[in-house]
Amino acid sequence: MITCYLRYIIDARKLKEFEAYGKMWIPLVERFGGTHHGYFLPGEGANNVALALFSFPGLAAYETYRTDSLTDPECQAAFRYAEETGCIISYERSFFRPVFD
Description:
Elements: E1 2-10, H1 15-31, E2 35-40, E3 49-56, H2 59-69, H3 73-85, E4 88-96
Antiparallel strand pairs: 1-3, 1-4, 2-3
């Protein structure tokens, strides 16, 4: 399993738009075979940092999702929404593997 960690710098004035963006992606990731662990919005501390976590069975499954999302109409609509609203300033993506007992 591989977990994708996304750290977003968001426009703090557009928190509602970013939340709507996150709600678009949760079912899309799951439709493509991933498990979404949620979006995490600012609470205390920095008001412009948000996170998302989702997992795929492996890196190959994640790469298939990334490739397929480029031609999927709903994914493209989510990408456009973020661009049109300007709710995301930047993001970074990292991958992790879990350690279980």
